[in-house]
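TASK: fixed-backbone design
INPUT:
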């Protein structure tokens, strides 16, 4: 029988908070149960197992990050949109490291939950919409999406691991990185012959 007041959402939020504190890979069902003040078995009425919980954390985080990016980029275009998008991405990664990791890790997600989750779908729409403002079309759009994701994730992952030991401020490098991305997007190289797939 499900414990009164315990819901899949409450279990997911507890798991997400714990992930931010100790790291997604260190979250266990026992720790989540302790956080909620229940026995381990009580959780299984709301989530199937640890993998299911991680999938739910990933969907929660994708939704939160997407909402933040949507709010930051609303009414903006070109470089203003790019900078707002990137800054919102980086801020979310800094504030919620465990949740952010869930959005960047291959996790098996319940297909029924994924089918109704707005976050991942909206994230794609926002990213492609911003890049269309630079006049890009396929296959360049997909290549540009991969470039942005690789750059943003690479930067925040290196920051999180202490990888920027040089005396120059990472913030200054971040700003210059966004300048460079904007210039590249404005002057995107033409597709090569046979490069449609």
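OUTPUT:
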């Amino acid at each position: 029988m499900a414990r009164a007041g315990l819901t899949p959402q409450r279990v997911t939020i507890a798991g997400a908070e714990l992930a931010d504190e100790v790291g997604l890979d260190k979250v266990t069902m026992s720790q989540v149960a302790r956080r909620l003040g229940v026995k381990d078995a009580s959780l299984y009425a709301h989530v199937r197992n640890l993998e299911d919980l991680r999938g739910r954390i990933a969907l929660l985080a994708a939704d939160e990050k997407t909402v933040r990016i949507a709010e930051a980029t609303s009414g903006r275009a070109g470089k203003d949109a790019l900078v707002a998008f990137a800054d919102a991405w980086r801020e979310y990664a800094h504030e919620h490291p465990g949740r952010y990791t869930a959005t960047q890790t291959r996790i098996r997600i319940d297909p029924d939950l994924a089918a109704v989750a707005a976050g991942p779908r909206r994230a794609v729409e926002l990213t492609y919409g911003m890049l269309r403002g630079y006049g890009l079309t396929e296959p360049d759009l997909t290549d540009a999406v991969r470039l942005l994701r690789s750059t943003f994730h690479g930067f925040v992952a290196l920051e999180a691991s202490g990888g920027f030991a040089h005396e120059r401020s990472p913030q200054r490098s971040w700003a210059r990185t966004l300048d460079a991305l904007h210039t590249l997007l404005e002057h995107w190289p033409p597709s090569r012959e046979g490069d449609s797939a």
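COMMENT: The radius of gyration is 19 Å.
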